[in-house]
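Onboarding guide, step 5: your first structure request.
Type a short instruction followed by the sequence, for example:

Predict the 3D structure of this protein.
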Amino acid sequence: MDGKDFTQHWWEASGHICFYNARGEVSRLHIRQLQEEAVKVVCQHPSGIRLMPLAREVHNQHPEAPFASIPPVLRSLGRITLTNVISRPERGLFAPISMGERQPAGLAARVEEFHLPLAEFIEGDVEELTAAVPMGSQGLGDPWGLPDIVGVYRRCAGDSFSWTPEILAVEVRGTTEDLLSAYGQAAAHQLFATKTYLALPRTLSFSDRRELVARCQLHGLGLILFGPSPRDEYTLLVPARRCPPAPDEAQRFAERLHARDEEKFRTLFG
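The system replies with structure tokens like these:
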């Protein structure tokens, strides 16, 4: 071949990808070898790695091969081949199988580390709130519990108009297990909160994510993804819709909050 782009031509044959090298000769790379090298790369990313960054790292080890030949041979990882070492927690994400098994427990053990960054994210980036505070584990012992994060939008000194304070509630879960319970608890907060969010780990599977997005949009709940580190980006998938709460339930919630932590109550309500 004498075209200037002949080195970009490739094909698959007998378990190999074949391509022309710079000398115009046919070179081969075993597909299994490329997949095993990809596994090593994935294992260096406990929280997972996307297809194209993974393909680039594998290609860096074989720069002579056309880059376009790498992604197709990696797509079966975790679905058809090497399923014992690679998991696919969501579309396009490759993760070590150990992460798929251990991440929920690890997040659950330190889920409170996410409360303060989440409160700051919601207060400053998602909603215009007067204040937002993490409640920690203070809701334990109550079958309905307090939200993990409570925010308030209220009148401040200098405002020309007054209005009834609006409560924002956030239910935070450290695992993607028992999603129905998490969704139900978040929905229960709508009794007293004008806006309610459900915050879940980013390891949420594609099918669960799609189901939750549909349900949250239907019932006015907001949905936020976070992790695996408190320093990582927080993603707003579904904005919460304003839903007027029951006045008596809002009053009852304020009384419960005051009884639990008077300092946080004053931070929120003044």
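Each response can be followed by summary notes, for example: The longest helix spans residues 206-219.
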